[in-house]
Amino acid sequence: MRGKKFSLGIMTGVLFLAGTATIGTHAATFKMPSMRESSTVVANIALKPQSTSQLTDYAYDTVDPTSPYFHQYLTPDQVATKFGRSSGDINNFTTYLAKYHLKSAVYPGNLALKVWGTRANLLKAFNAKRVTNGKTYRTKVTLPAKLSDQIVSVIGVYSKKPKATKKASVTPSLPKNPTGPNTDLSKNAFSKRYGALKFADHYQLNNLYNKGLTGKGQRIGIIQLSDFKTSDVLKYWNQSGVNDDASRINKIYPIESAKTGNFMLSLGVSGAQIESTLDVNQSGAVAPDANIDAYIGISLDNVTSSTSAYYTTFMQAISDNRDQQLTTSFGPNVELNSKWEENSSSSMQDYSDAFNIMLEQAAVQGITVFRASGDYGPREEPSKSLNHVFSTSPYQVMTGGTSLPYTKIVKGKLITVNKERAWGNTYTNPKTKPSIYPGSGGGFSLLNPTPRYQIGVSGVNTFRAIDLLKYTKDGYLIQKNPQIIFGTGSGRNLPDVSANADNMTGYATYVSGNNLSYNPKTKIITNHPSKTWMVNGGTSFVAPQMAGANAVMNSGRKSPVGFWNPQIYKFATESDSPFTVLDDADNNNDLYYTGQPGKLYNQATGLGTINFDKLYGKFESEQ
Length: 623
What we know:
Blueprint lengths: L19 E4 L4 E2 L11 E7 L4 H10 L14 H7 L4 H12 L4 E4 L5 E6 L1 H7 L3 E5 L2 E5 L4 H4 L2 E5 L20 E2 L9 H8 L1 H7 L3 H5 L8 E6 L5 H11 L8 E4 L5 H9 L4 H16 L4 E6 L9 H15 L4 E4 L19 H17 L3 E5 L24 E7 L2 E5 L2 E5 L3 E2 L20 E2 L17 E5 L2 E4 L2 E4 L5 E5 L4 E2 L2 E4 L6 E7 L2 E4 L4 E4 L2 E7 L2 H16 L9 H9 L6 E2 L28 E2 L1 H10 L2
Parallel strand pairs: 10-12, 10-13, 11-12, 13-14, 14-15, 15-25
Antiparallel strand pairs: 1-29, 2-28, 3-5, 3-8, 4-5, 6-7, 9-29, 15-18, 16-17, 19-24, 20-23, 21-22, 26-29, 27-28, 30-31
Helix pairs in contact: 1-13, 6-7, 9-11, 11-14, 12-13
GO molecular function, one term: serine-type endopeptidase activity
Pfam families: Pro-kuma_activ (PF09286)
Cofactor: Ca(2+)
């Protein structure tokens, strides 16, 4: 999973696929489909709660067994009454926006407004002006004081872009295993080697299956920035021996319609399509009787900005309140000011603040949110500076990655991993030239302070690290004599928990679509339709697997487990902890951070791996 900049052009989405592929033997001339760009821009206004501190306290109270509000989850209407803006406040906004021919609707909960219309009318309504700061610029917005005083962030309003400006969006990039899966295995054997049973067996979720818990009656919401083919998911589920009923999958389009999604899929298989496909694959296979709500926030040529599309999609999922667990492996960008969406009306900090309020709404509604921590160690975007994929909100479970034990010959070299360790791979294919290496995302948030549930837990805000890699403009060089570093940090520590994410011990994915090539001499595009099985890794697998496991646990409960984090950090300090701490100092790093011997937490793997049978028992003991 990696955030990247890209512009939608003639060959956007074309991707060479490694793995076991069936490609059409006869090339066909491909006529590029056409679709008119939407003239409608979707923006958002994130609103201040009646009391930010009371909203935060209530989120914690819902999972505190000593509180009278324990498991007293709220509906969106109750959120609106208790914490949201008044009807009068909302009417003031909608009346003002209507004067500029803009449509608006409040999200249930009264903590945000969705606004849509032409870009010209948005610019007028928000009095948007371009403000230059050196080589970068932002869009400054101004509203009447009685409205602006209620606002946390205006998201998705942008002034005219310079010709050279890149368009911000997200293309996940998944580490691949060079060998595809063996699809001749029985369904059960396939799942144990490449699928949900591999996860379930290793992390004791199978014990809950044996108790009859399969996610029945649960819905899993997935936040995505690309469409996917339902048929690809069904083929994967069938191969894995799980329920492949198409009615399990429900697609929701908060920005543009399925027509746009199909158009973008027709341009060729993309990393984002693979990401969206595997999110549904994994969550639906780990919880084989749960249903899936795929919230697909797409905008052709970024007419609606990536920050606004992401917020809109997340906010609709939370305010719909259909799903007791949400998961995402996408993000609008990384936590670096230099990489933040240049045309944005929201600063990185106020966008983060808006995101936290939104996820607090999820918490008080009893929704557990999971997000992948990243796939390139402590630097999701190649840089000298440590950085993480957005968002690092403390109101979600950040899922990191490990490597399972294995012995393989890779490029003529015997590689042995003796026991489960943090995922940080410089050893299977070291390069003498600058390169990019895969590893679990982890470290310290630049935007969020250390949350109360992490304070006092051993290992939090201290670290042990090894400077394995040296940054150059083209990637990283492996240091010949890496130094050990001890230090302290501040901010929200991540990840929270971890599970297998190494592509060398990874999971299967199936994807089909157009495989396009362009001849610049003849100016002809040809298509070899492809059907590909591949084995990938990444924390992008872990987040939906955790969401599936949460659905399995919730299917055996009277009330949802809700906001995990305060609960799991407390469980980790108890004698019968459901976590296996990966605290080794050696051969246990995410490309930088290592284990901290004797401490409960480290920035390579968080609290460690989960025994879901024990975790379920801990949650049950508090009902």
